[in-house]
Amino acid sequence: MKKAIYYLIPFFILFAFFACDQKNNLTPEEARSIAKEAFLWGMHPVGIYHLRYNYAQNEKSPRYGGINRVSWERTPMKALPRVATTPNFTTLYGNTMLDLSKEPVVITVPEISDRYWSIQLHDNYARWWLKVGSQFNAPGPLRRLLIGPNWSGELPDGFVGADIVQSPSDFSGALARIALTDDTEEELKIVNRIQDRITIMSLSQWMTAGQKEVKADDVPITKGDYPTYPGMDTISEPGKLKGVDFLRWISLVINDPTFTKQPDNCQEDNALSSFERLGLKAGESFDPTQLTPEVVTAVEKGIEDGKKEVLSLMAEGFGIPRNGWDFSNDIGYKDSDWQQRSLWGLIALLGPIPSQSHTGAFGTKDSEGRPLSGEHHYTITFDLNNMPPVTEFWEIPLYDNAGYFVDNPIDRYALNSYMLERGKLQTGDGKLIIYVQNEEPTDPNQKKNWLPAPKEGFQFAARFYGPYTPLIDGSYNMPGVVRVD
After folding, report:
1. CA distance 25 to 475
2. Which H or E run includes 417?
3. Per residue in 375-428, pLDDT tens?
4. What's the pLDDT at 23?
5. Distance CA 399, CA 397 (A)
6. Helical ranges in 220-323 per DSSP H
7. What are the two backbone dihedrals, phi and then psi, of residue 377, each rounded to the nearest 5 degrees?
8. How far, in Å, CA of 305 to CA of 37, rounded?
9. What is the distance, to the nearest Å, from the Cα of residue 250 to the centroid of all Cα atoms in its chain?
10. In the chain, what are the domains?
11. pLDDT(10) > 50
């Protein structure tokens, strides 16, 4: 037996030397290639990690609310502070970061019969695994018991089988939306009252509270305990991280046990193995000082290679083209397509939303294929007999090229179907004309339909909630953005 051990010692020494030699002999070209793949794999999980950090851990953040506790937007989102890319303006958001590793979480919703509402849950890869709302379970009331992938324990009485849903990951985000159908104070109060009747909390807390509705403010704050590094609270836009700074966040993702890896996935296993050559490994803190200056430079180039590659998809058009718009939906979306996944993480965190909920149309060019710029004036002309076909509502928000709302003097960031239904938009000759420009129109009728643009470049991400087939397959004749000067 001792001889066998002696024979194995040289093998282990040789293996350890070889592994170390492989890491130390990492060439700049190899580092650049691996860093690019790390960006493609990690941009969306990094964006989600950053979002969770601000909601669940960063006590300096205005969004902080802990885990298993909903943080509501009590007023419509504005341009400042810059929180998330490409939000909508027509709904009030609720965001919850769930940790299902220790116990289940309960969601209860009262009857909501007069407006759009939804709660949709995603994992760390932005895969939407549960959807409830006016399109799916109207009008309520309803409740769900969410359990983690490895949880086992005693279930509480009173839940039927359809109420119990298993998450694919110990981490989950829950994104709630409730529509504001008007811009009045009374409408805002109505939605705030609905928010106070929606419960999201851990099972033990819910049982202690008597299994009744508990508004968010009454749920104790539990701070998340996930990997961090000093200075994380200074990062506002993870998409702008460069080189080894981006790798720090990849390391956080890899070292978080609640961010579940894809099981039996050869593509991901091979990638994670290659990331180890950059010092990115589960169970180890990332130390950029272990990389040579040449490798550090190569990593920065590799991250930029990844960004350029995915942004080129947007420039080329990555959806269903129609009059300068790119219609996007989840039909044909493959989670193994890291280019597409990273693009969404970079420009529209948590997209694509499943088409069962809503579809979108990105607009980055005018009707003649030219980039949009506030140096020019534009119009979008709808035929009132051929408006976007939806069961819920449509919205056309405008963003800067980074995906954030544009600060403007009238705090208007979108136009929507509720404004049209309530007569707050000017129509005539069977048409609705939207005026897109930086300067405020002098014509009062045009001002009613004014969508303020920045002086620089901008983009649209139109939303269609409850889309009918033409919006899903891109056959709807969406009017182009016409430059008029």
Report:
1. 53
2. helix 417-421
3. 999 999 999 999 999 999 999 999 999 889 999 999 999 999 999 999 999 999
4. 52
5. 7
6. 243-254, 266-275, 293-316
7. -110, 145
8. 9
9. 17
10. 23-51+227-312 (1.10.3360), 67-218 (2.60.40.1610), 317-483 (2.60.120.600)
11. no
